[in-house]
Amino acid sequence: MIAATARRYGPPEVMTLEDLPAPRPGPGQLLIRVAAFGVTRGDARIRGLDAPRGMALPMRLVFGLTRPRRPIPGREFSGSVEGLGPGVSGWRLGEAVMGITDGLTLGAGAEFLTVSAKGLIARRPDSLTPPQAAGFVFGALTAADFLLDQAALAPGERLLVNGATGAVGLAALQLARHIGARTTAICSPPNHAIAQSLGAAQTADYRRPLPQGPWDVILDIAGTLPWAAAQPLLAQGGRLCLVTADLAGLLGASLHPRRGSQRLCARVVRETPQALARALALQAQGALSPQITALPMAQITEAHRIAGSGHKTGSVVVTL
Fold first, then answer.
1. In angstroms, rounded to a whole number, what is the distance separating the alpha carbons of residues 315 and 313?
2. By three-state DSSP, how is residue 157 classified?
3. For 173, which DSSP code?
4. Which of 172, 164, 211 has its CA nearest to residue 188?
5. DSSP count for the chain of H helices, then E strands
6. CATH of 2-136+290-319, one of 3.40.50.970, 3.90.180.10, 3.40.50.360, 3.10.150.10
7. pTM, two decimal places
């Protein structure tokens, strides 16, 4: 099979295409023929060891101290069931599927992939093309976890989305519109139009001072609003959600989440079959629609460059 690999940490140019043996499904596993896979900001961070402050050593411990121990990056995928491992039931060969790889195993960036039949995988609805499905799951799960579960965003509340036009940001704008919140999107001026079309009531240039609010919920995707900077912008009862958190933010949210009437949210996103089912139900209702930039496998380096630039619009997807 052809696989997109990174044998060392570094810039997008470390990505290359290799011909590798295709995996075989083990007990309880599905073999997936991949049609498309997502290249997220997280994938670019792992490839380049571009960790938030305090997270470089934990990242190396998980993914490899001196070089990637899992050379095929990628988690989001869409494709079809190519093989059934021993003990698998409830799935048929040829079924169109979509999902995220098990835990942090990665490996979606190849022609074939094995995943748990009971993992984060679902049948792809006809309303999503394979590239759309490959760019849907990460943004939808992350936005829903922070806005619905951690912040409990309510109708009529004021939401500030800092870094509003990546995969998570555009999903957050759509979810907030569905809930009935009033959203201000912080992004680059060329992206103001798409932010407004997907639910932002107001937009602001990320290079200028932030609007003063106050805000009931701040969703910090860009990673530039720690508690000290965001707290004065929060209303009474306000919640700061750190989608991109450094070590201090993670520890602070874990050890001291409540700060008077306000709250700091930075829990790791819960990736469960139930969360995926909820995201797909929202998509079926018209509340979520993935916005993608699709590139062929031959442009894997460019896909990683865009994903790591901090200025992508929606999801970057590689098609096979």
1. 7
2. coil
3. H
4. 164
5. 10, 16
6. 3.90.180.10
7. 0.94
Q: Which class for 91: exposed (0-12), middle (13-18), buried (19 or more C-beta within 10 A)?
A: middle
Quickly state the pLDDT bin for 126 (edges 50, 70, 90): very high
Which of the following CATH numbers is that of domain 139-265: 3.60.15.10, 2.40.10.10, 3.40.50.2000, 3.40.50.720?
Answer: 3.40.50.720
Tokens of 174: 């759509």
pLDDT in tens, 225-274: 999 999 999 999 999 999 998 888 888 888 888 999 999 999 999 999 99
CA–CA gap between residue 194 and residue 166 (Å, rounded):
11
Question: Is 25 in contact with 102 (CB distance < 8 Å)?
Answer: no
Domain limits of the chain? 2-136+290-319, 139-265
Query: What is the SS3 assignment for 308?
Result: helix
User: Are residues 51 and 94 in contact, defined by beta-carbon separation less than 8 angstroms?
Assistant: no
Q: At what angle do helices 137-144 and 167-179 cross, to 10 degrees?
A: 50
Residue 142 near residue 168, CB atoms below 8 Å: yes
Residue 135 dihedral angles phi and psi, to the nearest 5°: -105, 15
Q: Amino acid identity of 111?
A: E
* DSSP reduced 3-state for 199: coil
